[in-house]
Design brief:
single chain; about 190 residues; alpha/beta; UDP N-Acetylglucosamine Acyltransferase, domain 1; 7-stranded mixed sheet; globular
Length: about 190
């Protein structure tokens, strides 16, 4: 009986968010992803055209920047998450380009995934041009707490990214990396 009641609450909240979006715009949905029931996160992502696999667990409080504003019904089209993934609390997705997360990935709390870097229309723009590239996270990878992954990074399969690392270069399969910037520490198959 408790499960039926909770499913009813999830449904009411989901319906409210979709309805209020028509009045308050996409920002209402973006703010709702930070505070809604964790069971509604994947439903909201799918509703706005993200590709989400089966049996994923969102811990809660997902922040999204740079959704597709040209077509708000496809606001989250740049998100692709496989099956059996775990997305921790306070994760940040920058959707200026695609974020592709393969099966069995664990993304711990506080992780930031950036798909672009841009100083805007300023003098520094002549020295630091806009970068906007997808981020790929391979199957079975574990991203530690408070990691930052920068634009264009490809993380291989079954990698471990140590807590607090800043990943700015590609990571080979079965690698453990750590640090700021993240550097190779060991092949985890040799442990």
């Amino acid at each position: 009986m408790k499960k039926i009641i909770m499913n009813f609450y999830y449904f009411i909240e989901f319906s409210k968010i979709i309805s209020f979006k028509k009045i308050f715009g996409l920002n209402y949905v973006l703010n709702s992803l930070r505070y809604c029931w964790k069971n509604n996160i994947d439903k909201l992502l799918k509703y706005y055209d993200a590709t989400i696999g089966e049996n994923n667990h969102f811990k809660g409080s997902l922040t999204i920047d740079n959704p597709n504003l040209l077509n708000s019904s496809k606001a989250f089209i740049n998100i692709k998450i496989g099956n059996n993934c775990y997305i921790g609390k306070n994760v940040f997705f920058d959707l200026a380009n695609k974020i592709i997360i393969k099966d069995e990935v664990v993304i711990s709390a506080g992780v930031t995934i950036m798909t672009h870097a841009d100083v805007g229309d300023r003098v520094l723009n002549q020295y630091y041009k806009r970068v906007c590239e997808p981020v790929h996270i391979g199957k079975g990878t574990w991203i530690g707490v408070n990691v930052t992954i920068l634009s264009g990074v490809i993380i291989g399969e079954y990698c471990v990214i140590a807590a607090g690392s800043v990943v700015r270069e590609n990571v080979e399969d079965f690698s453990m990396v750590a640090g700021v910037p993240a550097t190779f520490k060991k092949d985890i198959r040799c442990t």
